Every structure is written in structure tokens, then in C-alpha cells.
Amino acid sequence: MKTLLALLAFGMLSASASAAEPADNRLFEMRVYYAKPGKLDALNARFRDHTLKLFAKHGMTSLGYFVPVDNKENKLVYFLAFPDRAAHDASWKAFGADPDWKAAAKESEKDGKLIDHIENAFLTATEYSALAQAKNYGVGVFELRTYTTEAGRLPDLNARFRDHTLKLFEKHGMTNVTYWNLAADQKGAKNTYAAGNTLIYLLTHKSEAAAKASFDAFRADPIWIAAKEASEKKAGGSLTIAQPNGVKSEFLIPVDYSPVK
Known about the structure:
- By secondary structure, the chain is α+β, with helices and mostly antiparallel strands.
- It has one domain (about 1-255): Alpha-Beta Plaits (2-Layer Sandwich), CATH 3.30.70.
- Helices cover about 40% and strands about 25% of the residues.
- It has seven helices and eight strands; from the N terminus they run H-E-H-E-E-H-H-E-E-H-E-E-H-H-E.
- The chain has an eight-stranded antiparallel β-barrel with strand order 1-3-2-8-5-7-6-4, surrounded by four helices.
- Strand 2 and strand 3 form a beta hairpin.
- Residues about 1-20 have low confidence and may be disordered.
């Protein structure tokens, strides 16, 4: 009974806190660039010296630019914000036609192409997400987590995060950055995600070891155990698909030119 009462009180507190956050109705884009072997430094230099300025010129809001801690795939992961899809399309069209961009791209690729391939996905902020903004978190690592739900269970997962998970993350030393679902319209996006069953979010930790300790404590918390059991009973089973694809985690570090650090 005590655990149930604590769970109910905790859920009410979380819902009240999330309701105070301003709504973020922008369209976000997550882009993942896979650099050619030996070309990641040149790609970062092009972003640092040219691309970010041109993005701003054409109305794109740069948020975070990251590379994985274990970057075996030569990846650059970054996030942009736009007022809406029409603004996104107009901005990219203007950027691609800009003579300054064409000159920078040509100069940077005089010894060969920098990018092997690109993946992207369109995102919308969840109702419980803090406003995504460029700021310095002053921590060691970021963690990008992707949850894929069983069919029809994304609303249940969002409810559990809204009512319980975010506050429990904070309780156990994790910093919530932002939470997204996939935008309904993924037409034209080259991505490996499915709209309607995906939650993508960012946390910060002092270190990878600190992240492990925090999640160990989180998973052992009686309030979390009760919340998990209650949500799965209501939904009729696990909210996420079976591992290894149900929950994916990747530790990232911001590059030197990233607005979010």
C-alpha cells in the first residue's frame, strides 16, 4: 500500500511538473552522416568553418552536434529545428543553392567525397519534453536512447515517461535533455525508424560509469518497478519490443562547435 501511495503521489508530481513546460511545436530533424574513411576531421572542419553559419543564414536552428564515444562507423549525429515542414523544405532548398555552400563543398571535396551516406528522421517534441535549446549542460557524456514499442503502445510508453520515468531519472542522477516521437510524415526521409512506435531521447551523465550506476539504481527502485508493472498490465504486455531492438543506447560527446555541450 505504501508503494502504491508513493507511486500515485510521484505520478501526480511528475504530471504537474511536465504541464508547466511550454509546448514545443517545432519540427526537428535528426541527421546521421557516415564519413568516408579518414574524412571525419574534414567533415567536422566543413561544419565548423562553413555549414553552421550557412544553416543559420537559411533559417535552420542548430541544436547539438555529436560523435559517438566509440565511433567505429565514423559518424556525425546532429539535430536541427524548423518552424514546420514547409520551412524545412525551403531552408534546405536555399542552402543547397547557395553559392557559398557550393564553393565550400567543392573546396572540401577536392581530395574526394567526405560522406559515404546519410540517414535522417523527422521528429516532434513529446508533451512532457523540456524545450530543446542550445545550452551548456557541463557534463561528461550524452546518451541517445531509442525505444521501439509494440504496435499501438507508444501512448502507453509516453504516459509512463510523463508520469513516472522523468522524475525517477532525475532522482537517480540523470539529466533529462529532450524527448521526441517520430513525426507522422516521414515521406522522403532516408531513415531506419518507424513513425507511430518510436521514442527518441537524450540524457546526460557525468560518465559512462555514472550512467550504469544510475540505471542500476533506477531499475531497482520500488517506484519504478511498480510503475513498470502497472503500465504493462494496463497495456496487456511489454511496452517495447523484444531486445536487442526494443531499447538502443549510444553514448555521444559533443564536438567543439556544437551549440549544445
